[in-house]
Design brief:
The structure is a homodimer of 425-residue chains.
Chain A (H helix, E strand, L loop, with lengths): L9 H20 L4 E3 L6 H6 L14 E2 L2 E2 L10 H11 L6 E3 L4 H14 L16 E6 L3 H9 L3 E8 L2 E2 L1 H7 L5 E6 L13 H8 L9 E5 L17 H7 L6 E6 L11 E4 L2 H14 L5 H11 L2 H30 L5 E3 L8 E5 L4 H10 L2 E3 L16 E4 L6 H24 L1
Parallel strand pairs in A: 1-14, 5-6, 5-8, 8-9, 9-10
Antiparallel strand pairs in A: 2-3, 4-11, 6-7, 10-11, 12-13, 13-15
Helix pairs in contact in A: 1-13, 4-5, 7-8, 11-13, 12-13
Chain lengths: 425, 425
């Protein structure tokens, strides 16, 4: 029997419950220990890039453009790394600031400095404002929301549509001068895998924000992270903002965490030259320079956009079967029951499942009982509170496919069980 | 003629002025371009550690204690790195948090978090306090003072003595609850090269501060950085603070910036386990993990304290002749004139010259004219203002000895010229 739960009789649902519960108990008895919680690359992906470990071997290897990267200095990073990121993002090298191993840190530091010192066009540090609000398209990235929450920012949830955030709502809300910014993951959004449409991006770049220091946090985490099909060009947000008369509104972030090594990559913050000058005055107090040796390793290893995209194809070959496994299980086991919906992303690191309201927490509790750890329910919403208790983020990159098969069996069984419990309650 | 300027007649001083001015003009004509501004290791030192570049070569090399350091995770760092730093500092591994390539960043982030979120024993974030004061032994490290200045902290200069900060003054000032902390470089202090005496350290550890969240910033930057003679053991400040009933008062910082590579080392923040737990809750919002691959490189390369100290002997063999050169010039050219005094450090990265009042700025302006760049006058004092206009920091580590000879000729000539100008004015 394979029809929507909503179309079934009470007796049919009870019979289904018995079947599903028996399968759940069988799975539980296996005492599995599986993890689909975070977007961590798998070992096979890490092994792809081993040559980066030895790309610098001698003192001579450590000199680039006459600069010895081993020593102190060059706060904004080496030019060769700026050039590489500019080619990947479509911006200019002089708009790139090269950070350490985590773009998250560059994002945190940007928000932190807005609070303690203010941004280029701030009238005062945000900590001196009575109220600071931030627009949070959701479901979104839990670590973004944690940053703004940590600084006491009031977060306003913006619904996601298949073309990006609900722009009518965004355009209306930015008329409020206490709305100081917005989080965005524009390409293969975390977690839905949605690519913002051209129209959405242009409307964002052209926002008429009342706050003079409105901060567009553009986390282009998956800028070259197609796992299905070819690289999709994506317009440079810095250019669009400049053309729309908002040259200093956007800070774009990216990294090689899911290109080379997650714990030892290189990050970039791209923003206008005026913003760079302003931020460097603050950043020079925090550090003398980020790790330029590792930046040079990346430049020598990745070389250019063409070579980097070729590497991404190898990642894609590893990732695609994992995503296919997730989508196959959902299509076969869940789709006919009409108890959840999801996007079918072609890039990024997640599949985001929206269950019928009220099922997410219970589904994940059952998963945990059966030995499968997933991202916590609610994590994809501001304050960790999903108003519909509906969104579940599946991160299939870490486990091998065989483990994923077992984990998805558990997940689908738990989702069915939660839906049946609700219907029979 | 080689007697104190103060003992000479006006005619003798005029004759000396003519001699010195002629020599100055000769030096200026050489159009030198020399730099003694920052404590940067020289190329010969960087070349000592080239093997660290290739110490990790394969995926298997990147696994330690069952952990793959290439992937995300382990916010506080790998245990092997904690063990290494604990052995070097004399604290416990669980008291160590392993950071990125800059201890300065860990220091900045500690002060930043005190302001935005408060410390473990803070009643509120420091940004909500009407007044925050910090004790600044001076001359001291300009980058320390820039951090507290950047957060609007009122800095109080504490005179340095040959045994460390003036502790009678410190003990008196900490009775003020708005005095929230103190900067210290306890071993081979920047710039004087003074080693705090046992009594000073014990008095610091036992401070009865009125502020419940008094923050002792213990920058042990030169903990193993003897360039003359053997490693000098130094008591662990965490233990002393704990024994004195101040277990959570101290945050100690160190790094391998002047052990391996200045731009690509590993840093550590050592503090009580309770402080670690508290800080990790804040740091987990800022980053997923620091670069554990580079931390493991350091562990495999440095191995243990014995091996690390053997490496420091090699650094010492390069540095000692440079410091000797500086001290020889000062001894021969300046000492008899009685226009300046200085310590004779056995470790650290600086020689700190205290001129007769009113000579520092003019001396450095003359040096610049003659092509020798030095740390800016006043930099070693809070707000960059040396009340006596007297302290000059010499950083001899970067230039080869031949260049140092030329630079010290310039420096001594300029100091004499400044003194003569003042006497003849």
């Amino acid at each position: 029997m394979n029809t929507a739960y909503a179309a079934r009789t009470a007796d049919e649902l009870k019979a289904e419950y018995t079947l599903v519960k028996t399968h759940f108990d069988d799975l539980k008895a296996k005492a599995l220990k599986l993890n689909m919680a975070r977007g961590k690359p798998g070992k096979e992906q890490l092994d792809l890039v081993s040559d980066i470990l030895t790309v610098l071997q001698t003192p001579e290897d450590c000199v680039v453009d006459g600069l010895d990267v081993r020593n102190y200095g060059e706060l904004s990073g080496i030019n060769a790394a700026k050039k590489l990121f500019a080619e990947l993002l479509g911006c200019k090298p002089e708009e790139c600031f090269i950070g350490g191993n985590a773009s998250l840190t560059l994002m945190y530091d940007t928000i932190a400095k807005a609070h303690t010192h203010g941004l280029l066009h701030s009238e005062k540090p945000w900590c001196k404002e009575e109220k600071v609000k931030f627009l949070c398209p959701a479901p979104g990235y839990d670590r973004h929301f944690k940053i703004t929450e940590s600084f006491g920012v009031e977060m306003i949830t913006i619904p996601m549509t298949p073309t990006g955030p609900d722009m009518d709502l965004v355009e209306d809300l930015v008329k409020d001068p206490t709305v100081k910014g917005m989080w965005c993951v524009p390409k293969y959004s975390n977690p839905d895998g949605i690519v913002y449409s051209d129209e959405t991006i242009r409307r964002i770049a052209g926002l008429k924000a009342a706050a003079p220091d409105f901060l567009l946090m553009w986390d282009n985490a998956y800028c070259i992270h197609e796992f299905d099909g070819d690289f999709q060009p994506f317009d440079d947000i810095l250019t669009l903002c400049r053309e729309a008369g908002n040259p200093d509104m956007v800070f774009e972030f990216a990294s090689t965490s899911k290109v080379t090594l997650p714990g030892a990559g290189v990050s970039v913050m791209a923003t206008s030259v005026d913003n760079q000058k302003y931020m460097e005055k603050l950043l020079t107090i925090q550090t003398i320079s980020y790790d330029k040796v590792n930046a040079l390793r990346h430049v020598k290893y990745l070389k250019d956009k063409e070579n980097t995209l070729a590497l991404m194809k190898k990642h894609a070959a590893i990732l695609k079967p994992k995503f296919q496994c997730v989508l196959d299980w959902l299509g076969k086991e869940i789709e006919p029951l009409e108890i959840a919906s999801w996007q079918k992303p072609k890039g990024g690191y997640f599949v985001s499942v929206n269950t019928a309201p009220g099922l997410a927490k219970r589904t994940l509790a059952l998963c945990k009982e059966a030995g499968v750890v997933m991202t916590g329910a609610g994590a994809t919403f501001p304050y960790g509170k999903d108003p519909q208790d509906s969104n579940i983020r599946i991160a299939p990159s870490l486990p091998p496919v065989a483990e994923l098969e077992a984990a998805m069996d558990v997940f689908c069984t738990c989702l069915k069980l939660a839906a049946l419990e609700q219907k029979l309650a």
